[in-house]
């Protein structure tokens, strides 16, 4: 709970007070630091976990690889990926995708491309996540030429995934290539693809409630919008007390 709220000091305090720590509690700390952008701390907890003799899981490695990606720790990520089998954990597609993301964020796009091309010999055809990570890196660094090549692979691997078309269109738009952006949107329309609708959700008493923009489908929609109106009114008064 503390780590999800970004209070890692409180999370660590609870962790250190625990009389016994199983792999779940260790994973929670590794993941917590990772999700809060504290890559070095995530790595440190991971090392403590190994010293304590607790066996890491697929979840552990995914969290620590993600931490390396978001913190620019590419060399550490490479070593961790290579060490997985030493701990009895077979790397999965998502682990490779996290490492590809690390390479991409570090502008090592050529290395990432070559790494992906070798993946089918390791994990079979499940490389869409890695190509998707590389496409995201192309957007981050404005590499249109490589983005077009990667997008073509993704269109073949996931012909029904509208997000890949949207990503390429956004890359063109960011570069001011509006005709190309419209062309990709046109392809989506021809194929009957629509952009996935964004939504918000909240869990209350173990029940998940999902909302989209202008949503009136919830059984308590009237009460929700009434309360929202009151909150907006209070906010406007607080901003302008006169």
Automatic annotation (TrEMBL):
PPR repeats: from-to residues: 22-56, 57-91, 161-195
Keywords from the UniProt entry: Repeat, Transit peptide
Keyword Cell membrane: no
Transmembrane segments: none
PROSITE patterns per the UniProt record, alphabetical: PPR
Pfam family, one: PPR_2
Biological process (GO), any one: RNA modification
Homology family: Belongs to the PPR family. PCMP-E subfamily.
Name the UniProt record assigns to this protein: Pentatricopeptide repeat-containing protein
Organism in which the protein naturally occurs: Miscanthus lutarioriparius
């Amino acid at each position: 709970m503390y780590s999800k709220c970004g209070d890692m000091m409180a999370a660590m305090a609870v962790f250190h007070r625990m009389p016994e720590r199983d792999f779940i509690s260790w994973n929670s700390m590794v993941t917590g630091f990772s999700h809060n952008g504290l890559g070095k701390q995530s790595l440190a907890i991971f090392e403590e976990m190994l010293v304590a003799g607790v066996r890491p899981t697929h979840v552990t490695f995914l969290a620590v690889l993600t931490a390396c990606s978001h913190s620019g720790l590419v060399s550490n990520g490479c070593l961790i990926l290579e060490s997985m089998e030493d701990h009895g954990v077979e790397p999965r597609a998502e682990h490779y995708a996290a490492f590809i993301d690390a390479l991409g964020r570090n502008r090592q796009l050529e290395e990432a491309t070559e790494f992906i091309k070798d993946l089918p010999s390791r994990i079979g055809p499940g490389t869409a996540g890695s190509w998707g990570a590389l496409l995201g890196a192309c957007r981050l660094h404005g590499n249109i030429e490589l983005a077009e090549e990667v997008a073509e692979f993704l269109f073949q691997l996931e012909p029904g995934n509208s997000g890949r078309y949207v990503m390429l269109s956004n890359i063109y738009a960011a570069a001011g290539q509006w005709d190309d952006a419209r062309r990709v949107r046109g392809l989506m329309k021809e194929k009957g693809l629509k952009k996935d609708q964004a939504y918000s959700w909240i869990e209350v008493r173990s029940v998940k409630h999902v909302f989209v923009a202008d949503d009136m489908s919830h059984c308590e929609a009237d009460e929700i919008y009434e309360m929202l109106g009151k909150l907006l009114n209070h906010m406007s008064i607080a901003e302008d007390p006169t």
